[in-house]
Design a protein that fits this description.
Length: 250
């Protein structure tokens, strides 16, 4: 049997500390410490609140909950800490490490798999689990990952502090690694599955880590020059990255 894996686009975006503060009151009330800073509630409590909120979003749409998975959790925690320590915010690390690299041990030799990653950081009330999940849900790419029916496992990582050097007591950086393996991954629509031996790799995987890093930096500069709201700048960044990746993959 030919080994297969899911070909999912890498969603590259940024959630900045100035995003609109809002949270689902009903959901937050059901999740302990959802409205507290991780430094106050403790990081393990904040992780549990984040997972609780993610599963509320899925349950409200008839989707099965995500189960915490140790390998994904370890990868998420390590990456959140790395972004704070090395002062970067991206799906590709300064050393060129990608999502595929981070989750290599999770995928292993599984024939069919699906993975995704969402990032965020915030300061003050924007750094609580409720605010972070609310803003993920307001972003199309992040929401699609959270509500992807193929995903059934997750690992949440939270580090006190921010990629811009925010005080650990009042800021936090979040990473959620989502995944599914084997028959669970087959829930993905057939058009997004392909044979690993025959199908082309996703655009992002056909571009070197060094080039992806250069593209990300260039598009961040483009986004900063965009007039309008933070949402407009984030949209401009996403479009810039997508266009540049397609061009580089030719």
């Amino acid at each position: 049997m030919t080994a297969r894996h899911l070909l999912l686009p890498k969603f590259i975006t940024a959630i900045f500390a100035s995003l609109t503060l809002a949270a689902s009151t009903a959901h937050a009330a059901d999740c302990t410490a959802a409205n507290l800073l991780p430094a106050l509630a403790s990081v393990p409590t904040a992780k549990a609140a984040t997972l609780c909120l993610l599963n509320h979003e899925r349950a409200s749409r008839g989707l099965l909950p995500l189960a915490e998975q140790p390998v994904l959790a370890s990868a998420a925690q390590s990456y959140s800490q790395a972004m704070v320590a090395q002062r970067f915010f991206d799906h590709v690390s300064p050393a060129g490490q990608t999502l595929d690299d981070r989750l290599a041990s999770y995928v292993g030799t599984t024939g069919i798999w699906s993975t995704g990653e969402i990032l965020a950081w915030g300061v003050g009330p924007l750094a609580t689990p409720a605010a972070i999940v609310r803003n993920w849900m307001s972003s199309t790419g992040h929401r699609d990952n959270i509500l992807n029916p193929a995903f059934n496992e997750v690992g949440v990582g939270i580090a006190d502090g921010s990629p811009q050097g925010g005080l650990p007591a009042v800021s936090a950086t979040y990473v959620s690694e989502l995944g599914a393996r084997g028959s669970a991954a087959s829930a993905q629509p057939a058009e997004l599955r392909a044979s690993a031996s025959a199908a082309p790799r996703p655009v992002a995987q056909r571009v070197s880590a060094k080039t992806r890093k250069q593209i990300s930096k260039r598009c961040h500069r483009v986004a900063r020059r965009t007039k309008g709201t933070r949402k407009a700048r984030t949209t401009r960044y996403d479009r810039c990255v997508s266009k540049a990746l397609r061009a580089a993959a030719r």
